[in-house]
Amino acid sequence: MQASADGALALELHAVSKKYPGVLALDRVDFDLRAGEVHALFGENGAGKSTLISVISGVIHPSSGRIELGGSEVSFDSVRDARDLGISAVFQEFSLVPLMTVAQNLVLGDEPGRAGFIDHRAARLRALELLDEIGFKLDPDRRVGELGRSERQMVEIAKALRGQVRILILDEPTASLTERETEQLFTLVDKLKRQGVAIIYITHRVAELQRIADRVTVLRDGRKIGTVSARDTTIDRLVEMMVGRPVNEVYPKIESRAGEPVLELQGISSMAGVHDAWFNVRAGEVVGVAGLVGCGKSELMRAAYGLDRISAGIVRWCGAPVSRPKVRDMLRRGFYYLPPDRREEGLIPVLPSGDNMALGQLHNIQFRGWLGSFDPRKRRDVVRTQAPRIQLAERNLGKPVALLSGGNQQKVLFGRGLVGATKLFVFDEPTVGVDVGTRAALYQVIKELCEAGAAVVVVSSDLPEVLHLSHRVYVMRQGRIVAELQGGDISEANVLAHFFEPDEKAA
User: Fold this and answer.
1) pLDDT tier at 405 (50, 70, 90 boundaries)?
2) Are 359 and 417 in contact (CB under 8 A)?
């Protein structure tokens, strides 16, 4: 992981543009990167960040402009070309082979050989050396398909650091990591900076910018808005540069008119690690569920929805007991669950966005035509009516959802809950991987749903999100609900006080 001299210009882009039919994805963008610094890219979904790093990493070729590496003009025809010159990228979409082990993935394409065959022992030793060097505790013999998403993210990062790396690109690297793993990554980034590696860092988590970045370049609509020092600017200024207008209230004030309980969990335990949980959410209120990654907060709602098997306790829906909840039954009762991973569990990539919105409600009478048969025209009419509520352009309804930005994909998932008579909305990590502008739009949807009388649950690892949106907050730790806070008791200090065991806090 050797790099150029600290502080020297490692990369320069001069008036780089990228045109697609009918779209100018990058418009004469200038950008520079120095050895030993973290230069963050910030902007809304569709601002041009992914296109820019795709140009730098050799995925796509620019339509015009010039790229200089270490002062010399370069041109990449492939990712391999960029990699050979020391540019390595970790994208949001994993490029791992699930059936191969961690070690096999780490040396893929550069396997050590002996007598014309792959030397598996040498490959394993090389993988162990790399993992040890960067401090990731991963079993080199485990198949990647058996790993959790955070572990796969760590394998991707380790794979990118193989060989002589001068420039490292990290695209939303902490989206799948726990708090401890995130700190581990930041420690690694600090180490790489000291070695002179230049790092391009993309994140939607504004707090990370001031924690890890030296400079921030803001993009909007394919154009460079400006570059600022991460330490000398404010979050409000960055958001204003990103969206093009002052953002005084990202989080709306949500009025609560709490009515009767919609969902009650009484002493619930599940096979997924929830223990003796007592929980309720009423019509016309937003209830937050907070805790560290792995605390059981997602598993609590998945058990209520029927995704995880309940081993003990009672589930009540609108006062009536539900024995052994099943997803189909809970969905038809009016329970909508938005999963935390839209790609793995939420969307069918090849289907149009409109069809994705309608999934789960095709049984509904509003989609039925002559003699009760399914009527595609009615489906189109229904989703077209709901699209403005989630600020999804009508032209996107007919596109395969895989072609939309992450923010628009999340809007499609929100829209799915609006199609049908939904009484309870459970949003599990509702804004993961989306920009501040899209967040504000989705928060407004939550406000409207709650004030219209729906029950809303927000499960989130983003503590400000829980604090600002919730009327009541449950805090979970090690599969158990350890606190219920409401009113003036909902504060960062009070919530964080319950995240750890007393001895952990003392340590």
Assistant:
1) confident
2) no
State CA 140 to chain mean position distance: 26
Which helix H or strand E contains 206, and what residues bound it? helix 206-212
Domain boundaries, the chain: 9-243, 249-334+423-438+454-507, 343-421
Contacts of 72 (CB under 8 A, 6+ apart): none
Interaxial angle between packed helices 235-243 and 436-451, expressed in degrees from 0 to 180 and rounded to the nearest 10: 90
3-state secondary structure 409-421: HHHHHHHHHHCCC
Equal fold, 9-243 vs 249-334+423-438+454-507: yes
Tell me the average pLDDT across 301-316. Answer: 95
Classified by CATH at the fold level, domain 249-334+423-438+454-507 comes out as: Rossmann fold (3.40.50)
Q: How far apart are CA 249 and CA 411, in angstroms?
A: 20
pLDDT of 261: 96
For residue 253, give the DSSP letter. P
How far apart (Å, rounded) are the C-alpha atoms in residues 308 and 304? 8
CA–chain centroid gap for 136, Å, is: 21
Q: Are 322 and 264 in contact (CB under 8 A)?
A: no
State residue 409 phi and psi, 5-degree precision: -60, -40
CATH architecture of 9-243: 3-Layer(aba) Sandwich (3.40)
Which pair of tokens denotes residue 295? 């605390």
Q: Which of 6-10, 73-77, 266-270, 387-391 has the weakest average pLDDT?
A: 6-10
Mean pLDDT taken over the chain: 86
Q: Tell me: pLDDT of 163 over 90.
A: no
Contact between 325 and 316 under an 8 Å Cβ cutoff? The reply is: no
Interval 200-214 mean pLDDT = 86
Q: Report how far residue 499's alpha carbon sits from residue 269's, in angstroms, rounded to the nearest whole number.
A: 20
Give residue 363's pLDDT band: very low, low, confident or very high (50, 70, 90): low
The one-character DSSP state at 74 is E
166: phi then psi, degrees, rounded to nearest 5: -100, -35
Token couple for 14:
């001069």
Confidence of residue 75 (pLDDT cuts 50, 70, 90): very high
Residue pointed to by tokens 């935390």: 340
The answer to whether residues 230 and 40 touch, using CB atoms and an 8 Å cutoff, is yes
What does DSSP say about strands 223-229 and 261-270: parallel, antiparallel, or unpaired? unpaired
Pair 298, 459: CB distance under 8 Å: yes
Structure tokens, 10: 């490692």
